[in-house]
# Entry
Amino acid sequence: MAFRKNESARLQASEANAAWREVVINGADGEPAAAEAARRRAGSRHLAMHGPLTAAAGRRGFQTVAWAMEAPGALPHGSDAFIASDNLEFVQEGPKFQEETLMRRWLAAPAETGLVGDTAYTRFSWPVDMPVHGVVVVGAGVGVEWDIFVRMRRDHDSAHAHTVHRLAVVELVSPGASLAAQVRETGRWIAWARQTFNLPVGVFGVLMSSFAAQLAISNCSAWPEAARPDAALLMRIRGSDWC
# Structure
């Protein structure tokens, strides 16, 4: 039963995600905020199947994790794994729309790793009637999209926290499957923000994304100038063992 329910939830989430992309990236007819809400609901239902599915797999003796080591030479060596690019040729910009007190625009670009998906999605937000004097690139949990959890959304919507300070926000909503991928994607979106606004661009991280931000500022001296952050803020939650 758990396997059938999980497959049904997975298909519904996939269909909602495809419909959402058509609206917020390709500009198809539809209400962006409604399409986003439908994507979150379907994604939440699918994620809610993790517990029942794991329990069912355990009862049947299925292996739930498969480990694999990359062949020598298949991955970049050392710090080369954290080299970002300022190439924006393949960045897609969706139509802008208003959501409460914010203007939004979704961005898409080829993912730095295909372990999770072929496309990395980023949400750009700025205040409706307020001049912007800076941009902050905000990371997410590695391999985690916090915003997909409907009940947690308001607590984790970083845009509301930053735009009150007259900052535009670029959120890595669909992050890479590795720290290295998120570091490289951070550099790309810094370059995009700098080209779009010609304003100072900072990088912010909390928990695991603070580690990605730390790696970004530790390695950005080797990046193109446009991809380097002007400032950084790293945050750790008291009592957390995540970072």
